[in-house]
Amino acid sequence: LTVLGLESSCDDTGAAIVHKRPDGTAEILSNVVIGQAELHAAFGGVVPELAARAHAEKIDIAVEQALSTAGMGLRDVDLIAVTAGPGLIGGVLSGVMCAKGLAAGAGLPLVGVNHLAGHALTPRLTNGLPFPYLMLLVSGGHCQFLIVEAVDRFSRLGGTIDDAPGEAFDKVARLLGLAQPGGPSVEGAARSGDAARFAFPRPLLDRPGCDLSFSGLKTAVLRTRDKLVADQHGLREADVAHLCAGFQAAVADVLAEKTRRAMLNYLSLTPERPALAVAGGVAANGALRSRLSQVADTAGAEFCAPPLNLCTDNAAMIAFAGLEAFGNGQRDGFDLSARPRWPLDDRAPALLGSGR
Ligand code: ATP
Ligand code: FE
């Protein structure tokens, strides 16, 4: 079975071909991502109207490139999968309309995929993880703990009540005059910093459960910066390094502790092959990865961190999630709609009562 996947929910236009072998394993034949970083750079964030127009312009090109890289034509494809939400509605619409056109033109079945399910199912594409596994989805727009129980069953154990960590990394970088995206800049600066130099809060650690908060942490960095600037009439490079190290350590501490709690909840299901998987751009952070891998080790669980290009937005994950949904009997009609909001546990009854 060969699927063409489309992704256009944020600021990356993606098209990918994924092939499912008879033994059930999947292979990525092509994975095209056309980014829009330069387009939005001057605005300090993604501008929805610009993003929508760029998706509409680029999606056909992405599809052509994905097919030609895979050495295929549309006639070799068995299924069209597309992100139907959540995301910026203009972009999602571009993808959904393109997918409908392709499916109608070639007489192919169509499957609408939840973008978050795409992220959450990635460890099955890369590592063939069996259900159920614990997933920390940690990106520019999201932060949540999920028990991935089936292709269409996700139990949310908790998540951020305000900012996503990626957003916080980006804001801290902006506060300190570092380049965007903030994650890699802050991580780089933190290498020469002392995490203990400035004390930052560990939000919500004193409360039970797996919910997280990052907005206070960002404000704490702002206050400390302002005080340094007032006291010494400027920021030294060493201060920036200490601030970054302190901030990153606080994020890693909080995420590690909440992951430990989520793990206890997950292990109560007595999974046969316990595993902790991460996805999303912040999963690229080395300090965080090593902390999470320790948490997994301590719990006797496998740690699965997909390569970065499959952690950030891409169409291969959408193609793969589409394959899984198709195998599960999902078929969508031409009335498939684009959804700006679409919580993952929408049609999933909560499995667990505790830990919420
Ligand atoms: P979503 O997937 O939630 O819609 P998004 O597509 O914007 O959001 P991603 O592309 O998954 O998010 O990730 C981008 C985020 O990851 C940015 O906020 C960026 O700063 C962060 N990031 C990237 N590399 C690192 C790193 N090494 N350390 C910390 N954060 C990082
Ligand atoms: Fe994403």
TrEMBL record:
<dbReference type="InterPro" id="IPR017861">
    <property type="entry name" value="KAE1/TsaD"/>
</dbReference>
<feature type="binding site">
    <location>
        <position position="187"/>
    </location>
    <ligand>
        <name>substrate</name>
    </ligand>
</feature>
<keyword id="KW-0479">Metal-binding</keyword>
<dbReference type="GO" id="GO:0005506">
    <property type="term" value="F:iron ion binding"/>
</dbReference>
<feature type="binding site">
    <location>
        <position position="170"/>
    </location>
    <ligand>
        <name>substrate</name>
    </ligand>
</feature>
<dbReference type="InterPro" id="IPR000905">
    <property type="entry name" value="Gcp-like_dom"/>
</dbReference>
<comment type="similarity">
    <text>Belongs to the KAE1 / TsaD family.</text>
</comment>
<dbReference type="InterPro" id="IPR043129">
    <property type="entry name" value="ATPase_NBD"/>
</dbReference>
<keyword id="KW-0012">Acyltransferase</keyword>
<keyword id="KW-0408">Iron</keyword>
<feature type="binding site">
    <location>
        <begin position="137"/>
        <end position="141"/>
    </location>
    <ligand>
        <name>substrate</name>
    </ligand>
</feature>
<feature type="binding site">
    <location>
        <position position="119"/>
    </location>
    <ligand>
        <name>Fe cation</name>
    </ligand>
</feature>
<feature type="binding site">
    <location>
        <position position="313"/>
    </location>
    <ligand>
        <name>Fe cation</name>
    </ligand>
</feature>
<dbReference type="GO" id="GO:0005737">
    <property type="term" value="C:cytoplasm"/>
</dbReference>
<dbReference type="InterPro" id="IPR022450">
    <property type="entry name" value="TsaD"/>
</dbReference>
<protein>
    <recommendedName>
        <fullName>tRNA N6-adenosine threonylcarbamoyltransferase</fullName>
        <ecNumber>2.3.1.234</ecNumber>
    </recommendedName>
</protein>
<keyword id="KW-0963">Cytoplasm</keyword>
<dbReference type="GO" id="GO:0002949">
    <property type="term" value="P:tRNA threonylcarbamoyladenosine modification"/>
</dbReference>
<feature type="domain" description="Gcp-like">
    <location>
        <begin position="27"/>
        <end position="320"/>
    </location>
</feature>
<keyword id="KW-0819">tRNA processing</keyword>
<dbReference type="Pfam" id="PF00814">
    <property type="entry name" value="TsaD"/>
</dbReference>
<dbReference type="GO" id="GO:0061711">
    <property type="term" value="F:tRNA N(6)-L-threonylcarbamoyladenine synthase activity"/>
</dbReference>
<comment type="function">
    <text>Required for the formation of a threonylcarbamoyl group on adenosine at position 37 (t(6)A37) in tRNAs that read codons beginning with adenine. Is involved in the transfer of the threonylcarbamoyl moiety of threonylcarbamoyl-AMP (TC-AMP) to the N6 group of A37, together with TsaE and TsaB. TsaD likely plays a direct catalytic role in this reaction.</text>
</comment>
<feature type="binding site">
    <location>
        <position position="115"/>
    </location>
    <ligand>
        <name>Fe cation</name>
    </ligand>
</feature>
<feature type="binding site">
    <location>
        <position position="285"/>
    </location>
    <ligand>
        <name>substrate</name>
    </ligand>
</feature>
<feature type="binding site">
    <location>
        <position position="183"/>
    </location>
    <ligand>
        <name>substrate</name>
    </ligand>
</feature>
<keyword id="KW-0808">Transferase</keyword>
